[in-house]
Amino acid sequence: MLSKLAEETKNTILTMVKGAGEIGVALQTAVKDNVVSVLKGVGQITTTATGVVSEVVQGAIVAASQTGITLTTATKNVATGAIKGAFEVGVSTVDATQKVVTGTIKGAAEVGGDVASVAVASVEGAIEAAGAIGANTEEAAKVAIMTAVKAADEIGTEVGQDVRKALLSTASLPKDIVKAVLG
Questions:
Q1: Which residues of 48-82 are buried (b: 16+ CB within 10 A; e: fewer)?
Q2: Full-prediction pTM beyond 0.90?
């Protein structure tokens, strides 16, 4: 069940994205703006405060599932936008990546989506966002992969195994980093 913040985010995102010509870009921008707004509203950036990023992302994933855009496309855009937004207000890339990846995994589980595909898209989005903001993409990839596996394991052992397999078999991810993280 979505938290109040996640539900509000879902409704905001649905309103902003409906009718947009390029849904992926609109979704990325809407999520980025929403994360910035929520974090600025919190005031001081602390670990507790950045926990809301996960809720915003979860709400965005649920909203995206209701727009007709594929969950994997939505996830990559949500992750990219959320990390850019969190970074803009002073959240570290590592903390933002952890919160965002966790939120995408929880959101996918909430809507009954393919968590393994969402995990891959979330890692891709984290790497893309890190590159766009000038952060270390290798570090972002490591953090995103570890977080995706941890979040998937919390859902269930089988889901965790599916995520590991998907991460290992995806050509777009840096194989050396995936193998180093997953062993």
A1: ebbebbbbbbbbbbbbbbebebbbbebbbbbbbbb
A2: no
Q: State the Rg of the chain over Cα.
A: 15
Determine contact, residues 102/147, Cβ cutoff 8 Å.
yes
Question: pLDDT averaged over consecutive 10-residue blocks of the chain (183 residues)?
Answer: 69 62 74 86 66 84 81 90 91 91 92 95 95 95 97 96 96 93 89
Burial of 42 (0-12, 13-18, 19+ CB in 10 A): middle
Any idea what the Cα angle at residue 132 is, between residues 127 and 133, rounded to 5°?
Answer: 100
Distance from C-alpha of 104 to C-alpha of 144, rounded to nearest angstrom: 11
Distance between CA 41 and CA 91 in Å, rounded?
14
